[in-house]
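Below is a filled-in request sheet from our internal design queue. Each sheet records the structural input a requester submitted and the sequence that came back. We keep these sheets so that new team members can see what a complete request looks like end to end.

REQUESTER: design group, bay 2
PRIORITY: normal
MODE: inverse folding
CHAIN LENGTH: 114
BACKBONE (tokenized):
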């Protein structure tokens, strides 16, 4: 039951993140929200909080559509590379090899993404 609860909590957090991105009317406001959330995810990653960092990354992705004006604005920013690196970290390729390797070399306490 606890595994289901942690998965549903992560899903709820990612839905909240998506709603934060989509809520503003102007694209410039949406862009600033996305860039701020990328900064937050980066800092959470530095604090070894993989669970919250993954929830934010998973929430930003559905709000960015290919060919959309918002996606074009965000892709021009240097912080977009941070989002891409988080996507690689949490990707399902090769049985989460990048995440497992990163977790293996984590020093100090960490909140793992189960």
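RETURNED SEQUENCE:
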């Amino acid at each position: 039951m606890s595994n289901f609860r942690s998965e549903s909590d992560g899903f709820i957090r990612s839905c909240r993140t998506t709603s934060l991105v989509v809520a503003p009317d102007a694209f410039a406001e949406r862009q600033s929200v996305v860039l701020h959330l990328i900064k937050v995810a980066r800092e959470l990653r530095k604090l070894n909080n993989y669970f919250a960092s993954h929830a934010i990354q998973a929430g930003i992705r559905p709000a960015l559509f290919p060919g959309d004006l918002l996606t074009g604005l965000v892709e021009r920013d240097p912080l977009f590379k941070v989002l891409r690196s988080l996507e690689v970290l949490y990707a399902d390729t090769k049985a989460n090899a990048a995440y497992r390797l990163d977790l293996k070399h984590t020093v100090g306490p960490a909140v793992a993404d189960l």
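SHEET NOTES:
- The mean pLDDT is 83.
- The chain is about 70% helix and 0% strand.
FILED BY: M.R.
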